[in-house]
Known about the structure:
Elements: H1 2-26, H2 37-40, H3 46-49, H4 82-85, E1 97-99, E2 111-113, H5 114-129, E3 136-138, H6 143-154, H7 166-169, H8 173-181, E4 197-200, H9 211-223, E5 229-231, E6 250-253, H10 254-267, H11 282-285, H12 287-292
Antiparallel strand pairs: 1-2, 3-4, 4-6, 5-6
Bound molecules: zinc ion (ZN).
Amino acid sequence: MRLFVFLALFxxxxxQSQPSSSVNQKTTSPPKTNRTPDMDSLPLDRSIADDSAIHxxxxxxxxxxxxxxxxxxxxxxxxxDLKYITGRFNQRKHPDFVRLDDRYCAYPDMYLRKEVYQAFxxxxxxxxxxxxxxxxxxxxxxxxxQKRIWENKWTGKKNIAGGENLAKTTKDPxxxxxxxxxxxxxxxxxxxxxGTDIDLNDLANSYFETGKGYKMYQWMRQNAHRFxxxxxxxxxxxxxxxxxxxxxxHWTYLPTSKKILAQAKKILKDEDFKGFLGAETAPKIHIxxxxxxxxxxxxx
Length: 300
Ligand SMILES: [Zn+2]
């Protein structure tokens, strides 16, 4: 009897091991990744893929065939993970970023993603032919820069526009955060983290109502889309009910920022806002829904 049981077990194990060994032989082909359709057009950075695994979308794409690395652009290497989306990297050391020519900027040492800069240069040339000068006032600002801006206002080290010291006037954390949000992005929520967005020429809407500013803004409205650029913070109204106030100077390179936003929609949560004073207000403010997604519908 014991011999029979032993033989029966042996036969069973042998049968089960047979198919699995043939599967093992098949896995010499490249393993499938859990990249999403949106990310399929993006290059995969194997060096940070593991690091970002916990933030990757759980959605599997079984029909997607693994692509050979040689078909991907050689230099680009970004996975738009939570670290990237919330600006926790140094743009000066990131392989997808390039330092801008100081001649095109209001200040030195500015950076953008390479494809964004190429598109900007083409737009700048076209504008120049129409006697319009485009100057970048601000480009990439990472989390750590935004944290400094935010906390200076949070602590009252710097007054907000209108001369108000929030540490003295506004004790309630949510109210204080909402006041800062009128003028500055919460760290982790700024599109300037992404290397896709730029501020052009002036940081006051009134500048764009007369003279050179008016001419430039009208040109941008008519032509920027030809180069991939769109105004993110259009006037609030039925089409855009929430979010940062109108910014006629802030433009995004949509071909890339749309991919980053698609990832943000999947993985960015209010609870991910951490590491700065007042971060606990993010879920109460619904920072993702109201601000990150409170943009020109064309950019969603
Ligand atoms: Zn801006």
